[in-house]
Amino acid sequence: MGFHEIRFPANLSFGSVGGPERRTEIVTLANGFEERNTPWAHSRRRYDAGVGLRSLDDIEVLLAFFEARRGQLYGFRWKDWSDYRSCRASQTISATDQVIGIGDGVQTVFPLSKTYRSGEAAYTRPIEKPVAGSVQVAIQGEPRQEDIDFTIDETRGTILFETPPDIDVSVSAGFEFDVPVRFDSDLVQTSVASFQAGDVPNVPVVEVRL
């Protein structure tokens, strides 16, 4: 699948509307009870890139970005301003934000992830597009040095250690991340007159599986 390692202009994604989507299949039985199931292990996010447009210059930037991606053909990075860090919005990123694995003395590659908890339930989301320069890593709470102790594949969201972490030690990380997306339409309709009157185009964007 074609993917360009470029981020949609963050100033245009700021203020956009969107969030996670789930697919739940519900069957109502004859006795009134329900059976619920989902074919999706992970949610899929959708956004409207048109909401962040504030000027005619913004429209030109959007059109250039759209044309360079050939519409829906190539994916790209998207900053979700409501959820782009490994920690809470009020906190500072640290190397102990997210436990991404437990050492076994053999494994050297650990994929980044973010866990969402509510009560006793939790969901672990794969993070495949970390932001360059933002990733911090620790083993058993002790920070490690990038390019000395580990390297990062920023296109796949994986950490590679020079030496495998010892058995039963926790591997944690803190980071910023983008969402891999594509345009969800091959058509962008804009009108200078309507835009100046306060109307903005609808530019749907949808998360892609990599």
Number of helices: 3
Q: How would you characterize the largest beta sheet?
A: 6 strands, mixed
Question: What proportion of the residues form beta strands (DSSP E)?
Answer: 35-45%
Helical content (DSSP H or I, runs of 4+): 10-25%
Any chance you could write out the topology, listing elements then pairs?
Elements: E1 3-7, H1 10-13, E2 17-21, E3 25-28, E4 34-37, E5 44-48, H2 56-68, E6 75-78, E7 98-102, E8 109-111, E9 113-118, E10 121-126, E11 136-139, E12 142-144, E13 150-153, E14 158-161, E15 170-174, E16 179-183, H3 192-196, E17 204-207
Describe what you observe in this structure:
This protein is mostly beta strands and 210 residues long. 10% of the residues lie in helices and 36% in strands. It contains 3 helices and 17 strands. It has helices at residues 10-13, 56-68, 192-196; strands spanning 3-7, 17-21, 25-28, 34-37, 44-48, 75-78, 98-102, 109-111, 113-118, 121-126, 136-139, 142-144, 150-153, 158-161, 170-174, 179-183, 204-207. It has a 6-stranded mixed β-sheet, with no helix packed on it. Strand 9 and strand 10 form a beta hairpin.
Task: For the structure shown, list the relevant keywords.
210 residues, mainly beta, 17 strands, six-stranded mixed beta sheet, four-stranded antiparallel beta sheet
Sum this structure up briefly:
By secondary structure, the chain is mainly beta. The chain has 3 helices and 17 strands. The strands form 5 sheets. It has a 6-stranded mixed sheet with strand order 1-6-16-17-5-2, with no helix packed on it.
